[in-house]
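Data card: per-record layout.
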Amino acid sequence: MIQLTATPASTLVDDPVHIRATGLPPFQIVILQATLEDEKGNLFHSEAYYKASEAGEVDLECAPSLGGDYVGVHPMGLFSSLKPEKFLTKLVKRDVMNSPFLVQIKLYDSNLPLVQIATTAPKVSVTLERWYIAPGVTRIQVHEGHLRGVLFLPPGEGRFPGVIDLFADIGGLIEYRASLLASRGFAVLALAYCDYEDLPLRTEKIDLEYFEEAVNFLLRHPKVLGPGVGIVSISKGAEIGLSMAIHLKQVTATVLINGPNFVFSVPQVYRGQISHPLYFSPQLVSINSLGLAQFQYCFEEARSKASETFFLPIEKAQGHFLFIVGEDDKSINSKAYAEQATERLRRNGKNNWTLLSYPGAGHMLEPPYSPLCCASKLSKLHLFMHWGGEVTPHAAAQEHSWKEIQKFLRKHLVPVVTSQL
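The structure for this 421-residue chain is written out next.
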């Protein structure tokens, strides 16, 4: 009798799952498929071919995929290679509190044509719950002063290392990374800064005093461990995160994921000082054969001519940096920007940084086992953006960098207790 197991059946999305099929005929080739429906009804799926052992077993911990969406031994390959049926749809969890994503793992005979899978019952299947929040984590709406966002607190008395989570200026509030970090023991403020509640639809300027207010709010909270806070940021959020680290001494650990070392699109303002954006060269936008826009070289002309003052003075920051770079980023030239920033630190005698650079990884580096989003529609620009990345190396980068982010934050936010002997 064929059996399919996947354990644990209910867990956080950044936890691995052990998938195993038994009771198969020796050396039979089978198809394993994963399917998921998001909160808007969009369908995602992945497939891989496996060959049973002499004992009639397929164990994804050690069995290689022979073909399909990935090849080789990748125990979580069915998750990281999920792709949308509707082209250019990004998988995003909106309601992190009340429901998990349900992932079905199904097993089919290999002689079944792929076009018939949707209308054919599997030999056997299991359903998994993939949660974005751990039991006991609380979600608190933040509507204090100018601040708009959500604070996630781990269970227990605390106090917990405090982190501010920043995404790009696409608008709204994205909570899933913050809720996962809170599930791992951090007090995390998912901070909105445009197109959310009463915040402006578009940012005409980035006022760092708003983000300073967020730092002070977090440090005042009785469950937050001071004296410093961390930042986890990506893309435009990383530009803001870098500026916060430069201007705010309370920021002691800053994670910069595929971000620039200069201001772009709109000016930054802090206490009367204005940082102007670097010139953008629209003629350097390239559109590939699928109609996807690639922006990674659009600032190169300006960078080559800009004086040192146009780049953010990272050497003034008192805290530590973790740069995370996808070398196949098609949105911005993030590897060059990170290297320029770290070289500036080196020239100024600083060693307060770590650079993790991942070949084959794209712009959208997410928590582990998230499917690669290599392209999606950017409604604000009315464009289809190419984010880059290849499934297998991108998945490896997400798994490795997520562990490194947590290690980095704990190292620089949690005081070392020494014995008083």
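Known properties of this structure: The two ends are 63 Å apart (CA to CA). The chain has a mean pLDDT of 95.

See the next section for split statistics.
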